[in-house]
Amino acid sequence: MRNVAIIGVGYTPVFVSKRKDVNIAEMIGESVDAAFRNTNLTPDDIDAVTFGNMQTFEGLNLPHLWSSEHFRAIDKPTIRISTGGTTGMSTLHAAYYYVASGLYDVVMAVTWEKQSEGDSQVGLSGIVLPEAMVMVQHGMDLFGGKGMGGMGGGSTGAAAYQAMSYLHHSGAEPEHIDKMAALERSNAALNPYAHLRKKTTVADIQATPMTTYPLRFGHTCPTSDGATTCIVCSEEKAAELADTAAWITGLASCTSDPTTANFIEGQITDPAEQEPAKIASKKAYAMAGIDDPKTQIDMCEMYNGFAHQSLMWLEKLGVCDEGEAHKLLDAGELNIDGRLPTNASGGVFSTNAIGASAMNRPTECALQIMRKIEGGHQIPKPIHNALAHGWGGMFQYVTVMIISDSPRRQ
Amino acid sequence: MVERKIAIVAQAQIHSKDMPVPRERMLFELVKGLFDSVGITRHDIDTFVLCSNDFSAGRTISNVFEDTPVGAYMKDETKVEADGVMAATYATARLLSGLYDTALVVGNSLGASQFRPYLVMDYELNPVYDRQLGLINELSAGALQAKAYMDEYGLTDSQLDKIAARLLANAAKNPESINDDAGATPEDVAASEYLYEPLRRLHCYPFTDGACALLLAAGDKARELTDKPVWIRGVGDSLDTYYIGERNLARSRSTKLAAERAYKMAGISDPAGNIDVAEVSAKFAAQEPIICEELGLFPEGSGGEVADKGSAAIGAAMPVCPSGGALGSYAFCSAGLVRIAECYKQLTGAAGDTQVAGASTAVAHGQDGFCLQHNAVMVVSSEEG
Amino acid sequence: MAAQDRIVVDNAVVPLDFTYNYRVGQSMEKFIKGLGDKKILGVKCSGCSKVVVPPRQFCGTCNRVMDEWVEVGPGGTVELYTVGHVTVEKGLVEVADAPSVLALIKLDGATGLLAGEVEGVEPSGVKNGMRVRAVFKEPAEDSLNDLDHFEPAG
Fold first, then answer.
1. Could you report the predicted ipTM of this complex, rounded to two decimals?
2. Interface of B with A in 47-86 (CB under 8 A)
3. DSSP assigned state of B293
4. CATH architecture for residues A4-119+222-403
5. Residues in chain C closer than 8 A to B137 (CB atoms)
6. Chain A CA closest to residue C63
7. Which of A43, B272, B321, C4 could form a disulfide with A72 if both were Cys (CB 3.0 to 4.6 A apart)?
8. What pTM did the predictor assign?
9. Per-residue pLDDT reduced to its tens digit, A112-138
10. What CATH number should be reported for the domain whose range is B6-115+210-225?
11. What is the Cα–Cα distance from A90 to A277, expressed in whole angstroms?
């Protein structure tokens, strides 16, 4: 199996609520420019492009068609990937497979979102809009008690249910969610590419209003405008083109049934169970030759739309035992200078250009390994194996990547 | 260098003018039927590549409710949002990587009963210009491209009608076709109303509800699953500029580059000589000569002569779209997979009344965008190579 | 308990009507302002010398930003055209009240063609190569609609 390296990353100069100064195509182009600047490569070096975002957020169908010049894809093989919240990582997976297949040697993955130009609620509710509309048309009050109960309170409601279930099973307290939130926001304060960059204490988080117990406003991710580009290549090309590289040694994806509400297909999966995370992570570890993730994973970047999820994913992805994550948090092990730095970037919880969010996880891991982090969130200890995680859909999609400091040997 | 051999081992397709069941049921029955015909279950599939479009489905993350019906529950799965040939190409790459031995590719959309294809295309327009002005739509763009080819190479209206009629006659022989106008004569085509000149109603693809599934497998696994594997010998795609005012609409550079890449991989230096049958996605009849010429199947500008001489007919030297092509049925996302599926049927002798005798190497084509902006090509053969 | 009426839903119509607000970007902003001044602005790539209209930031062929602004037109030549007998509105096709002419026009000074409607001439009188001239809205709206249509020029 061909080894695949990450040799470069480019971010838009900022990730913010509204980029008023550029249109969609121009914004995407900024991240591609940054990737070329950071690697000294040009479009001539790129054999193919993978491209992803959640297009209903912008109301623009197949946006790679209109913006083809701006992301330097003219005359290039190009593919569009779109898998909801996991899009960013699915798009990087596609780039990986294109190189691993031997079809191409250098592939660029471009992911982005410009949510300020659309309506995020529309984008999100669109997943179940037909079902919801039928209910409304037949007299069901979706916003009254029965309706809300049936819907599980929408995505925030489902997350709250997930958080409650997680707290119950793990023994963690709501204060641990506050603590994780404060840790990640303070990490983000050191990251020039993060969106919410204010140094935050537990008291700051606890001062924010409750949305649905146990989740507060301060536990919730933002929506951001931004783009991320990542260049991957074969081992031979990495030696030729780059002074340093990070290596994709494991990857996997898994999907379960769509969660969020009992009114669809009568599903009964506990959204805190996250079986796909367990299945995908096991496959990825096996591929990477990692027998004991609890000792061999040096850092994690998890897809956490809500602060409790960082703790939950650590357990579901096998990096610590069930019920242990909050203890690691209390012991300071999840801090940037700890044993298992988690979301040193601030995570999705601090920056969420949704099409890019799941790719920012592996790009942050790669930059950490290559010691090319800009800003103050470089993890001091050496990193041999990093875990990057993506999540989305209706709580059921999981993607995983293991990024390492050396290629997997056959 | 590519070492593994990847084959198509089974196909299933379904088309309707008005699908009587919801999308999820349609997918379940299609894929379950495919599995049963091969004698496998969903547990024999290592990876799933879905192909659908959020706008067409009217759902964000259109694959969320497609996964369970196609058998992807607790399995590895992803979604391509583009024409089906690209999804098949991606599945091929996944198998070539060595990480998987079997892949299921499933594309679908409901463009007849659920949503308007021309509006799905409108959403692809430049949002800060073309979409505001409302001048360019799929029909007006298709007409401009037809006129460009006619202006450049002298193709006449009656020759264009012959191309459409040939496709519709083929569609009449294909049980998968849903076009009510299948079997139309050139005179019928000529009598159909102008939309934007020279585009007539019977030159256009029919709105279709449809889905298509392909089962791909690597090497020994492919031979285990079928005694007639159809090997994927070459893949290639390319993207042009969006701006139709900056392209020569009488040609399609991206189709040419896509074909070059696929032929190179397949070791084909003489497409007109080596290709026995072609299935191309010409959404409007006038796109067919452009695509075929860029695929190297006919000389540049020869569309009129090909139409007059019948050189693209089923029994002729270079049969194109014996299935009826996009004029028989065309569902966004599924369409390119149907072209590959039809090639598969040709090469396994399963094409019924549309069979090209002795076909052993075929080329399939799919597209996205206005006036052939993004094109993908796949070369398949009953010979392993 | 009495049997209850059941609603069997076999078809649901879900009307969707969303508003998206797009940043047009700096190139398009300048273009729109130009139209308000009855000027058609294009942008030139210093790499390949092509002049495109409407303007945009990037030349994909040369991999460079196009920042040389050029006034083009208001006269131009019809390079390609189609006579429309239908309208397509939100994906629905309807017979048009009268035929229309949609042309791709090479404005004087531009290399890329601009789409525009040609009015003031019978469709049968339109030919490739014919000269046309831009007609601006009066008074100006400072929008894309300020370039209203094209008409035959001597």
1. 0.97
2. 53-55, 58-61, 63-65, 67-68, 72-82, 86
3. H
4. 3-Layer(aba) Sandwich (3.40)
5. 88
6. A72
7. A43
8. 0.96
9. 999 898 876 667 777 777 777 777 777
10. 3.40.47.10
11. 15
